[in-house]
Design goal:
The protein has 140 residues and is mainly α. Helices cover 31% and strands 0% of the residues. About 16% of the residues have low confidence.
Length: 140
């Protein structure tokens, strides 16, 4: 005796169950064709993370892109994600830190959050803050 009565065993499974079974069979065929334990997958080229620009960067695919390290809107010298030592410094923020203009260092080096950024993103002080060089006017 089968649940649902004697005719339930003869009934066709619902459409959802049939399509699920078809998917399982297709996966099994792929494993068999590709070898044991393998499934055929379409290969996708990895995203080109080095050439993405601010506003178009995909931080899920390219989390190390410097534009994935957000700066404060009202003060673009301060990183949103760094307030204390425990916050660390992501690879994206390490890259972004090295692109901040000298003006940020000049104006904020005594600011608690900027000082913490310096400690977190450059703990060995390898990065050198250099003032912009100005060329002498050319005599005419």
């Amino acid at each position: 005796h089968v649940c649902g009565g004697p005719d339930a065993a003869k009934a066709k499974p619902p459409a959802a169950a049939r399509s699920l079974r078809a998917e399982e069979l297709a996966r099994a065929e792929n494993r068999t064709a590709a070898g044991p334990g393998a499934e055929r997958r379409e290969l996708q080229a990895p995203p080109n993370c080095d050439h993405q620009v601010q506003g178009t960067v995909d931080c899920v695919a390219c989390p190390e892109n410097m534009y994935c390290c957000l700066l404060e809107e009202d003060e673009p010298c301060i990183m949103q994600s760094i307030i204390k030592e425990r916050d660390g410094c992501t690879v994206a923020c390490q890259k972004r830190y090295q692109t901040l203009p000298y003006r940020c260092y000049e104006d904020f080096r005594m600011h608690q959050r900027f000082a913490q950024m310096m400690k977190n993103c450059d703990p060995t002080n390898i990065f050198e803050w250099r003032p912009p060089t100005t060329l002498a006017p050319v005599a005419q």
